[in-house]
């Protein structure tokens, strides 16, 4: 028992192994060639879909331009300054990219080009934008909610009359009202509206439009270009894209100049405030000197006579040099004091620090430049709607505070160096100072007051000079950008890519049939070709029979020579070789399920054997669903079941077929209630013994 089970399992494993073998290339080719019409239909369908998609898909073009960012003219080669100014080109370029992609800058573009309003024409299938081609201008007079978008449809009844949203009609230049606000259409002289054409006008807030435009903008550093930026914009309208890029670069130049001028304006404002302050201090010194001179006319005479007072001639000759040196150093200290006061004032915490004050210390100049750059960056963030509570603003403010502390420390160091210079000047002029100390107290006081006045006057002149220089610099400020290429649009759209769309369509046109065929194969549980049997079984095949549309069950006669008849004759020949030596062979025909053609095969095998001259009998052993007798249109009701129960003899069973010589049929008879058990009857042996003696071939049509 166990050996039988093991053998059966091995046979099953061999069948599964054979069934899993892949098809060779030739089999695969012929398999798919059979479905060639399906492939052609699928390809036609997908290519048609691709054409329709390309026909109605709005193409997107790329508009590009190039600009070069020139380096600022600075003393960055100085080692001390480079230690402080650590801002590298890459960082600066990234900052410029962020500025160009900012909503604030794009909003200026929107406002200058009037991009809040977009015009469309409505076709049968798609709606197309008409940029600068609308025959009218949509003018909002008042808007109820400036944060909401507005859309209207206009249909012109004549050159001057139109309908709004298919409702009321108005004339050009006539105000029409709606819950959204008041509007009017102003005609354009160079264009005439098309009658019954639907024009769609969409109005959106500037911030919303700017955000949409920025989403399609790409700014990058050109590979291999040190400071060259490539500006790209994706748009379905070439002319609109070119205008946007050109205006964006112009607005960027304006912003660049404004940032530079902001520092110059801050310097002028600082100088004006200090001039007012110093003017008051100078008036105070003048009044003090006037009061002092009015008290002692002798001192006034000495001072006005410029006699040198009580000084010797040699000392008096160096008086002017000494006073000039002292005044120059005191002037610089006074400027540093003014700058220190400005920086320490917390109201100026995020204000630009004046730069054009003639500060010679390069480290301090670098710190001021870095501080101003951080302040400008913070201002840009705030203008681009970055909240003050954000981490980016907090980080910038901490950097600004750290830079402010460094500036104050360096200011202290620079002032200390100037004080040391004063001490050095005094030590080198000891003779003059000793003689000055020998002068009367009032004369020395007079000289001190005059020195103070001289310092204040020199400071006023110096600040006025610097203010004039700042004003000239402000008027001559130019952008540090230069346009390399004007905006130009690509000649072919970047989306959709026609070749890629057709490639995908062809690929899908091939994939869909393959998937369908694969699904059919997965669901197919029928044997359709000779190879379906060969690849899983070693059983020899005696023949193949094609599909038959003949309603007659018996198609084999002496005169029939069609394809199916010849196939049965081939089967007869193969059976003759297979059954050679067997006196009365029994051929049993069965199938897996009902309706597969079992009765058709058994009937015609019996017929073809009979035509060869052998006495043949066909047994109808399908007791549940017998078909042979009814198909052959036989009326005999006595059959196999009658014999098995003892109601008929063997001689009564055979029914001769009139049109096929040597062929008899034994019907199943009445359908029994227990067909499986009745076939086990002992009289079955008597039946087959009788048939073997009387016939040369037995064909049995059994149940599935």
Map the helices and strands.
Blueprint: H1 2-19, H2 25-33, H3 36-56, E1 61-69, H4 79-84, H5 89-100, H6 103-113, E2 117-122, E3 127-129, E4 136-143, E5 150-156, E6 161-164, E7 169-171, E8 176-178, E9 181-187, E10 198-203, H7 206-215, E11 217-221, E12 228-235, H8 238-295, H9 297-305, H10 313-317, H11 319-344, H12 362-383, H13 391-428, H14 430-438, H15 441-475, E13 481-489, H16 498-523, H17 530-534, H18 563-578, E14 586-589, H19 598-611, E15 616-620, H20 628-631, H21 640-644, E16 655-656, E17 663-666, H22 675-678, H23 683-694, E18 697-701
Parallel strand pairs: 14-18, 15-17, 15-18
Antiparallel strand pairs: 1-12, 1-13, 2-3, 2-10, 4-9, 5-6, 5-10, 6-7, 8-9, 11-12, 16-17
Helix pairs in contact: 3-16, 6-7, 6-8, 8-15, 11-13, 11-15, 12-13, 18-19
Could you characterize the architecture of this molecule?
It is built from 23 helices and 18 strands. It has four domains: 2-57 and 497-523, no CATH class; 61-75 and 114-239, no CATH class; 254-485, no CATH class; 542-701, P-loop containing nucleotide triphosphate hydrolases (Rossmann fold, 3-Layer(aba) Sandwich), CATH 3.40.50.300. Helix 11 (319-344) runs antiparallel to helix 13 (391-428) and helix 18 packs across helix 19. The strands form four sheets. It has a six-stranded antiparallel sheet with strand order 3-2-10-5-6-7, with no helix packed on it. The relative contact order is 0.09. With 704 residues, it is of the alpha+beta class.
């Amino acid at each position: 028992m166990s050996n039988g089970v093991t053998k059966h399992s091995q046979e099953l494993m061999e069948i599964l192994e054979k069934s899993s073998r892949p098809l060779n290339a030739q089999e695969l080719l012929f398999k798919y060639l059979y479905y060639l019409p399906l492939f052609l239909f699928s390809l036609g369908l997908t290519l048609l879909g691709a054409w329709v998609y390309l026909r109605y898909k709005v193409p997107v073009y790329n508009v590009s331009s190039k600009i070069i960012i020139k380096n600022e003219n600075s003393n960055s080669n100085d080692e001390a300054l480079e230690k402080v100014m650590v801002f590298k080109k890459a960082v600066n370029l990234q900052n410029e990219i962020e500025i160009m992609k900012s909503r604030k800058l794009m909003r200026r573009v929107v406002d200058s080009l009037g991009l809040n309003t977009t015009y469309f024409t409505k076709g049968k299938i798609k709606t197309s934008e008409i940029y600068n081609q609308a025959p009218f201008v949509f003018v909002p007079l008042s808007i109820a909610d400036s944060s909401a978008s507005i859309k209207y449809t206009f249909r012109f009844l004549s050159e001057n009359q139109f309908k709004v949203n298919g409702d009321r009609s108005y004339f050009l230049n006539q105000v029409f009202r709606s819950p959204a606000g008041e509007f009017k259409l102003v005609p354009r002289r160079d264009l005439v509206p098309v009658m019954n054409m639907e024009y769609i006008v969409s109005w959106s807030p500037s911030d919303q439009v700017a955000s949409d435009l920025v989403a399609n903008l790409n700014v990058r550093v050109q590979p291999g270009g040190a400071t060259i930026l490539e500006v790209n914009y994706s748009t379905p309208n070439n002319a609109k894209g070119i205008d946007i890029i050109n205006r964006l670069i112009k607005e960027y130049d304006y912003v660049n100049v404004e940032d530079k001028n902001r520092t110059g304006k801050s310097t002028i404002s600082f100088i004006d405030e200090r001039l007012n302050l110093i003017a008051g201090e100078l008036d105070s010194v003048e009044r003090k000197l006037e009061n002092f001179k009015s008290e002692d006319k002798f001192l006034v005479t000495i001072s006005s006579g410029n006699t040198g007072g009580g000084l010797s001639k040699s000392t008096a000759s160096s008086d002017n040099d000494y006073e000039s040196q002292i005044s120059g150093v005191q002037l610089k200290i006074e400027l540093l004091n003014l700058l220190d006061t400005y920086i320490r004032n917390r109201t100026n915490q995020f204000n630009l620090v004046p730069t054009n004050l003639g500060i010679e210390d390069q480290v301090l100049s670098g710190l001021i430049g870095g501080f101003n750059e951080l302040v400008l960056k913070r201002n840009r963030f705030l203008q681009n709607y970055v909240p003050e509570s954000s981490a980016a603003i907090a980080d910038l403010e901490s950097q600004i505070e750290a830079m402010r502390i460094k500036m104050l420390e360096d200011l202290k160091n620079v002032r200390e160096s100037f004080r040391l210079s004063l001490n050095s000047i005094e030590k080198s002029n000891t003779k003059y100072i000793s003689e000055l100390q020998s002068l009367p107290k009032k004369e020395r006081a007079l000289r001190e007051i005059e020195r103070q006045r001289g310092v204040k006057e020199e400071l006023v002149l110096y600040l006025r000079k610097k203010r004039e220089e700042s004003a000239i610099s402000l008027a001559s400020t130019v952008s540090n950008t230069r346009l390399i290429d004007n905006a130009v649009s690509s000649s072919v759209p970047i989306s959709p890519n026609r070749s890629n769309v057709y490639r995908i369509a062809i690929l899908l046109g091939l994939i869909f049939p393959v998937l369908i065929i694969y699904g059919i194969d997965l669901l197919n549980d029928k044997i359709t070709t000779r190879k379906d049997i060969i690849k899983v079984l070693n059983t020899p095949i005696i023949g193949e029979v094609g599909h038959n549309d003949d309603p007659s069950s018996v198609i084999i006669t002496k005169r029939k020579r069609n394809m199916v008849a010849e196939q049965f004759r081939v089967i007869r020949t193969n059976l003759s070789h297979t059954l050679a030596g067997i006196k009365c062979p029994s051929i049993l025909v069965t199938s897996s399920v009902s309706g597969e053609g079992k009765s058709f095969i058994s009937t015609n095998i019996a017929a073809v054997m009979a035509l060869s001259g052998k006495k043949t009998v066909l047994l109808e052993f399908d007791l549940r669903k017998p078909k042979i007798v009814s198909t052959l249109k036989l009326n005999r009701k006595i059959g196999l079941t009658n014999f098995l129960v003892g109601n008929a003899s063997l001689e009564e069973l055979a029914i001769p077929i009139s049109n096929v010589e040597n062929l008899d049929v034994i019907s199943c008879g009445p359908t029994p209630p227990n067909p499986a058990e009745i076939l086990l009857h002992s009289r079955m042996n008597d039946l087959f013994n009788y048939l073997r003696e009387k016939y040369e071939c037995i064909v049995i049509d059994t149940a599935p």
